[in-house]
Amino acid sequence: ADPISSFLAWCGRAGVELSPKVRLSREGAVAGYGLLAAEELERGEVLFTVPRTALLSQHTSSIGGLLQEAQESLQSQSGWVPLLLALLHEYTASNSWWQPYFSLWQDFSSLDHPMFWPEEERARLLQGTSIPEAVDKDLANIQLEYSSIILPFMESHPDIFDPKVHTLELYKQLVAFVMAYSFQEPLEEEDEDEKGPNPPMMVPVADILNHVANHNANLEYTPQCLQMVSTRPISKGQEIFNTYGQMANWQLLHMYGFAEPYPGNTNDTADVQMVTLRRAALRRAKSEAEQQLVREQWDFLCQLEMVGEEGAFVLGWDEVLTEEELSMTLKVLCMSAEEFQEYKEQDGWEDDSEEEETSTLSNEALSRLKAPCKKLLYDSVLLTLESYRSDLRAEQELLDTKEAFEQLSRREQQALHVRYGQKRILHQLLQLL
């Protein structure tokens, strides 16, 4: 049976309302399924409405009561375990009300997150991008959650779960499914500080829309339903894009399995690892005393929680996104021993002028940094570029030569988009400095 037809019939039963001006299709979408304009659309049109009863979450699953009772034992670092257990059950239960929804992803073979790539391929294609390290953490967490929370829960409910069916491999696929397709309702502003983020949920139809930074639709939340609304006029036949948030290409590939070709992703970023600045500062220290000073300055920055062994400074196209951390780190690492001693004694970091606190590290501000700070940041960017396996010029040639680019595998193409965007940002910073 055609998955779209049975899914649309299910939508009718579930109370999901689609505007007659839109259609779901594989044809004409940038990837997988997509939502297309069947007619001209104005700004502010409701494209579809999903009642909250049609959302698949830990509360609406047929085992919702069981998950509620066990909520204390299902706490985890990710906060996803209850939803994942609901999905494990609903995906494999032949009588599940959600089967037509799952038929759009029959075996999850469309999920091509880097967590499914062989380790050698991840290292070869993604070295320097921050993705291999993020995937290693994910895989360790998935293994831990499955063995310490999921398995014990399944063993205590053998009438519902079977570890031979609900395997670690299926669990891993469902984690990727939640990564790529779930939604988290934004918290009210007054709740942001007190509560953790809302748990994820699956939103049928909304999860079919593809993402671009320059999107043309937005999901709006009301107490009764969720609505996708156009944010600008859309021509007949055009694809309708949602936003998954302000995501850099490395985040898109890590969490969703794709990246946006340059220069489409205006939210792209590049990282300079914090420890790289320490390494650059130690390299330029001419004596043991100067090296010792750098180590003391680094320890001081760690105490202030400005830096850490695993942290990174995040650079956008127009400004530094971790401006406070980078400003302070450059300032402290470029102090003489006398200045550093005086700074510590005066609790100097509290006395910095308000103007300095509020100034953003825009590209223009970066070009006005003091010479020692410029040099330290410049050297750190060079060290960062060395961490990739290929250089910008070779990648530029690949992107410019259509035949060569088309001979690459899909994974090679997506990884190239990630590396190229990051290197463009880093090279732009070198020019500014």
From TrEMBL:
Its main location: nucleus. Keywords: Methyltransferase, Nucleus, S-adenosyl-L-methionine, Transferase. One of its GO terms (cellular component) is nucleus. GO terms for molecular function: protein-lysine N-methyltransferase activity. It is found in: Nucleus. One of its GO terms (biological process) is methylation. Gene3D superfamilies: Rubisco LSMT, substrate-binding domain, set domain protein methyltransferase, domain 1. Residues 20-245 form the SET domain. The keyword Nucleus applies. It comes from the Eukaryota. Pfam families: Rubis-subs-bind (PF09273), SET (PF00856). The keyword S-adenosyl-L-methionine applies. Protein-lysine N-methyltransferase. This is N-lysine methyltransferase SETD6. The lineage of its organism: Eukaryota, Metazoa, Chordata, Craniata, Vertebrata.
